[in-house]
Every structure is written in C-alpha cells, then in structure tokens.
Prior knowledge:
Structural class: mainly alpha
Order of helices and strands: HHHHHHHHHHHHHHHHHHHHHH
Amino acid sequence: MGIFQIFTLLGALGMFLYGMNLMSSGLQKAAGERLRGFLSAMTSNPFKGVLTGLGITSVIQSSSATTVMVVSFVNAGLLTLAQAIGVIMGANIGTTVTAWLVAWLGFKADISLLAVPFMLFGFLFSNSKKNQRQNIGELIVGFCLLFLGLSFMKESVPDLNETPEVLAFVKAWSSYGFGSVLIFLAFGTVLTLVLQSSSATMAITLIMLSMGWIPFNMACAMVLGENIGTTITANIAASVGNTQAKRAAMSHTIFNVFGVIWALILFKPFLGLVGVVTSTLFGLPNPAAEGFAVSVANSPESTAALYGLSMLHTLFNTINTFILVWLIKYIEKAVVWIIKAPKNQEGEVFRLKYISAGPLATPELATEQAFDEIIHFAQISQKGLEYAREAIRETDSDKFEELRGKLVKYEEISDRIEYEIASFLNAVSAGDISKDTSLKVKAMYKIIGELESLGDSGESISRILSRRNIHNKSFDEETVKKLDSMVDTVADAYDVMIANLMAAHKGQLVEISNAYNAEERINNLRSDLRDSEIEAIENNRKNYQTSVYYMDIVNAFERMGDFLINISQDLERAFALK
C-alpha cells in the first residue's frame, strides 16, 4: 500500500466526516426550531420520549445533536432527567438509520454515481437569497460529500487477496475464539474515540466486512465496541460541564454498557437471531451461519453481511431500549447517585448552569443553551439588587460590611459569567450558523454586556454607602423609604426584563411596551425624588453631603433602568415576532 494510497484513504475518510457534519448542520438549520418544539411537546411519558429521540435523530442524523438538545432542555426545566433518558434511548435507535443508509445507498445502489450531478443543485440552492434554501443546499452538498467520501474509501482500501501475508495476519486475530470478540470490541471502541464519530467507524466496519477482511462475527463485535466508544466521547465532553450534563452522559453510558454486556453473554444466540431475521426479511444467505464468508464484493453473501451488520445495530439498540425503558426511574436514581450535586449549592448558582461542553459541533442548537444561561444570568443579577436594598437599610457596621462584600462578589460573578458566555458565543459564531442565528448571537453579546453593567451598578451603590459611613453620615427613616420605593420600581423593571427574555426564548415576544412603561416609572420617580430633595436642601431641612450620597444612589438606580430597557430593546430587534 503506497503512501499516495494512504493519503487518498485518509482524505476520503475526511470527506465522509465533513459530509456527515455538513449534512447534519444543514438539517439542523433547516428544521431546528421545529425539532425543538417537537422535543418539548412529545415527552410526556417514556415511550413518547423514545419515539421523539428516534424521530429527531433519524431526521438530523446526529445522536450527539439530539443529546445536546436534551441536556439543554433538562437544564431549562422543560424535561426531567427521566424524560431525557427516554429521548436518549430513542436517539440510539435513530442513529442506526445511518448504517442502513450507508449499506443500501453506499454499497448496493452506489448513490455516489449521482452525487456529483446533485452537487449542482446543492450549489444553486446554497446561492439562494433565502435562508431556508441555503440550508437545504448545505444539506444536499453534505449528503453528496458523504457518499463520495464513502466511494473513495472503498476504492482506495487495498485488496488483501493480492497480499496473502497481510490477509493471513488480519484473519489471525479472528482465531482466538471469544478472545477475538473482545479484541475487535476494543478495536471498535478505540476507533470511535479516535474518529469521534460512530457513523464513520460503522462505515469502515462495513467496508472491511464487504471486502472479506474480517468475518461477520468480528464485525459485529466492532459494532458493539462503537456503542461503548461513543459514550466515552460524550462523557469526556461532559466532564467540564454541569451536573445535569454529566448525568445525561452517564445515563447514555449505562444504557450502552448494559446492552454490550448482555450482547456479549448471549453473543452466539444473538448473532443467530440477527442472521435469521436478515435472511427471512431479505431472502439472503444467513450471515451468521457456519461457514458463511464474503469473498466477492457485491455478491449475495456481501449484501447479506452488510444488511446483517445493520440489522445487528438496529436490533441491539431496539432490544436494549425495550428492556431498559421500564427501568428509567432506576437509571435516574443510579446516575444521581453516581454524579452527586455539589455540596455548596450557593456556589453552584454562580457557575454556568446551562452551557455544557460538547454542543459546539451543533452551533444552531448551542444558542439555546446560551439563551438559557443569559436568563439565569439575569436572575442572578436581580438577587444582587436585593442585597443593595438590604445594604441601604442596614445600620450595623459589621452586617453592612458583610452585605457590601456580597455586592462586590456579585460584581465579580457578573464579570466572570459575562466572559464565559461571551467565550461560548465566540465559539458558536466561529461555526456555520444561519443569518437569523447570527443576528440573535449579536444581540446576546449586547445583552450580557448590559447585565454585567447591572452588576457594576450594585457594587457602585455599595461604594457610595461606604463613603457615607466613612463620613459618619446616615439616612433617616423617610430617606430609606424613598430609596426602598426606588428599589421596588427597579425590581418591577427587572421582572419585566426577565419576562421579555423568557418570551423571546419561547418565540413569543411581540412588543416591549411593558419595558418602556417600567423605564418611564423609574425616570418619573427619579425626577420626583430629586426635586423633593433639592427643595429640602434649599429649605435647610437636609444635610447637603448626605443628600449628595442619597442622589448618587437614586441616579445609580436610574442608570440600572437604562440598562434594563436596553436589554428589552436588543430583544425586540433580534427576537420579536415580525
């Protein structure tokens, strides 16, 4: 095998993987919103959850994308962990569609002959001015590249029949009985980890089987290994994520490892079932029969082996789901026990709650997690407002310093959350996203900037109060009540802003008159308080220096109102229903 042939093989594999990613990306951009709505509506019981995961994954051809959506919905409270486990089970069945597409269109029908002509349609669609047609164009190009890559892989792999020594070496690994099964299972696991794609590993396994490199039972062992490999990838991705992301990934691991264990224990009977089902449905030789071997490509034996391997993948996940769907609540308890929530719950609130590792392969769906995180950011910011209220009321110096420390902490937290969300959005923007999503991401950048400024305002109020205390000044009861009314008005504006964020996230934002009304109330109250304070100073009823601190705080709250209305305006420009 020459160096050029090796690079051709690697290039063909890269084309296959790129085509798979492009096809999945195009499908997500074309149908992402509908799929998210379908996911949230169709999970009222475990069986609907399984069907939902199966349907979505069959459409977008990416179980990882489905899992990302599931984790996001769990974190947002739209799905329970138990419902998410059901969807993940269905996603495992849905991902088997890829094997059938590759086996049928890639080997039997050889759609690669039509791939190049279809590229013309993909190019024409991708140059359309309409977003949806561009997404369909991307889907067509990805579909064509996938099968072109598969065709080049088949052509570039060497014919081992021409090198008997190499063929004998490969087949020697198949002569250790059950030990060989474990060897090929490990090989499938490692190959999936290296390629980061169970679909690519499945395609390579189908090629090796169709060319007679490995017997049918060893190819089946590789497929079982691929099911373990894809869960390790998910756990590595979730290791830097939040608790729910880790639990969702762990439930996927439990599902697949349990399945591999029973499949290994019943390996021969299970292969026998696969062989009988394949030969009965398609009228082909039994690939699990004694003495079955593939010697010629495109022969009935080759077709039986390809269909048999795809059937094993489907039956494995279907049977496994049928067994475990009744045990979802126990799987949930197991993952909660294995992945424990942090002991310091207060500290957990201040970490990224909805953004987890792994979604960047699906940037269209990752924006959902970013928006969930922004809503969480706004809720954290609102808690800082309550600490400002308490600091204004507090007369004990030690307790005031404790509250001031919390306001400083909240300012640091807002800086950190802004940075982490912005970093996440940077990575999302670097991906291939639609124009609508790009507009929304730009709005998100502005919104997190405004939320960070709100955190700065709370810390600024604490500094004003500290200067007041240093100069031994204090607010009388009437002044505290006035400031309390200002806090109430700003709190109402916070509620309006968060309500608008949630409406925009659900695609229900129409207009923001509520935000304009809230800002007007803040401005009017600021003007009334300022005018009454100036009058009191002129009539010598108030100490001038104390009044300066008072008005500085009132102005700080008024600026918070400006930041709040800015957020709603950003939402209206990017998210309001047109």
